[in-house]
Structure formats: structure tokens, C-alpha cells
Design goal:
The protein contains 2 helices and 3 strands; from the N terminus they run H-H-E-E-E. It is an alpha+beta fold.
């Protein structure tokens, strides 16, 4: 009887296990990158919610001048539009590519139905489309 010797099988098994491990590590890095991107997106959404709620709160606190909280505005009196223009400035500082032609921010005051609707739009770095958050609420007149 002749004996057949196998040589190099341990080396081959080690190379295959290293290859499988490498693919697993690459998968973990990919999941980490997606998790970081989703975290950034959720931060932008939370900021948009905060900004929309902030304008609604300002408008409800100044209920007698509710018409001054429309944006884009047609009012030319700077004193009357100061609050909404300050809000737009805060939004553009807090969110990337916000309140632009491609990502508009709007505030619609409907006196007939006593509602205010605020839309905050932004485009995250690397995104090709804009995201938006819209809040609509009733306002109570005294």
C-alpha cells in the first residue's frame, strides 16, 4: 500500500478563514458607515422639528401680529418681519442647504381657519433630493 501525504491543507484552511473574517470586518465597516449617515439624517430631522415648533411658538406668543409670520413675506416693514426673518436665518444656520429655491422654507398663516403651517426643507451633504418637515396647528385668538 502506498500512502498519500497531504501537504499545505492547514495553510489553505487558514487563508480561507482569514478571507471569511475579512469579509465580516468589511461588512461591519459598511454597517457603521450607514449607521453614521442615519444618525446625521435623524439629527437634521430633529433640528427641523425644533425649528418649525419654534416659529409656531413665536407666532402663538404674538397672536395679534400673526400675519407677520408668513414666509415668504410680502410685508415690506422690517420691524414687522424681523421675527420671521430671524427664524429663517436660524434655520439656514442650523440645517445644510435650507431655505433655498431648491429647499424652500415656508410659513402659511390661514386667518379664516385659524391655522399656521410651517415647512422646513433642507438638503444634507451628498444628497440629491431635499427633505422636508411640515407642521400645521390651530392658533387660538383671545
Amino acid at each position: 500500500m502506498t500512502q498519500h501525504h497531504q501537504s499545505g491543507s492547514v495553510l489553505l484552511e487558514a487563508l480561507i478563514s482569514i478571507l471569511i473574517f475579512a469579509f465580516g470586518v468589511l461588512g461591519l465597516f459598511g454597517m457603521q458607515a450607514v449607521a453614521m449617515q442615519n444618525m446625521s439624517q435623524s439629527n437634521y430631522r430633529a433640528t427641523a422639528v425644533y425649528m418649525a415648533s419654534q416659529l409656531i411658538g413665536r407666532a402663538q406668543g404674538d397672536i395679534n401680529n400673526l400675519a407677520n409670520y408668513k414666509y415668504p413675506t410680502v410685508v415690506t416693514d422690517a420691524a414687522k418681519t424681523a421675527a420671521v426673518l430671524a427664524w429663517v436665518n436660524e434655520v439656514t444656520t442650523a440645517l445644510p442647504q435650507s431655505c433655498t429655491t431648491d429647499s424652500p422654507c415656508t410659513s402659511v398663516v390661514d386667518d379664516a381657519n385659524s391655522t399656521i403651517t410651517v415647512t422646513v426643507s433642507w438638503r444634507a451633504p451628498g444628497d440629491t433630493v431635499s427633505h422636508q418637515h411640515t407642521v400645521s396647528t390651530y392658533v387660538a385668538y383671545n
